[in-house]
Amino acid sequence: MKFLVCISKAPDTTSRIAFTEGDTQFDANGVQFIVNPYDEWYALVRALELKEQHGGSVTTITVGEADCDPVIRKALAIGADDAVRIDANPQDALHTASLIAHHAKQGGYDVVLCGKETIDHNGSVVGGMVAEMLNAAYISLATSLDLDGGKAQAKREASGGLEAVEATLPVVVSAAKGMAEQRIPNMRGIMAARTKPLNVVPAEGGVQATAVAKFELPPAKGDCKMVSADAPEELVRLLREEAKVL
User: Fold this and answer.
1) Is 149 inside a domain boundary?
2) Percentage of the chain lying above the pLDDT 70 cut
3) Are 42 and 57 in contact, with CB atoms under 8 Å apart?
4) Half-sphere exposure (CA, 13 Å, Cβ side) for 166?
5) Per-residue pLDDT averaged across 2-14, rounded?
6) Has residue 236 been placed in a domain?
7) More confident residue, 42 or 16
């Protein structure tokens, strides 16, 4: 069984965000980058668990330049067997997905996993695009995933309960919270990651559809008004006249 896990680099949520070049470029100075949590905690760990059950190999794939290597090494330390880095600066979701799909077509992977979204763009579209380009089944927002012979069985949250779905391999799955429990790399894994293969390949088959015109920060938060617990009528007035929520 061959697993391919999409790993992306994302800014830590505590990082200060700023832009340069007339608000057209993200300013990475002083930003701490991490493995996108949905990719790491859920997609990667579940792939490792399934490998432990069924055998096979787990390969990670990342679209990025050399500054992505530290987060890729962390994925290797957690337990991935090897890694592929497509040497390109990802421009948009389609660009990323097309590069991943072009490589995945040549690898003969049974299951491709990715996090449901990245915590910086929150687009939640790369997995579906990859599945379409591979002509493979797609299960989105899965909270569990099991394999039985040549089929994938998954569950995902639906209105009022859980939806159970089944698909024939190969399959692409986007992983949501509940898929697996976070694994912390141990010292043995960290040492082993230094010698595991990290294959850098040229960007081939990429398609770009959009370009960034401008970034904008959200508006600053307004002042907080404190209302005494003994004056509920004042709270109602503020909600009606200023917040306009009633």
Assistant:
1) yes
2) 99
3) no
4) 5
5) 93
6) no
7) 42
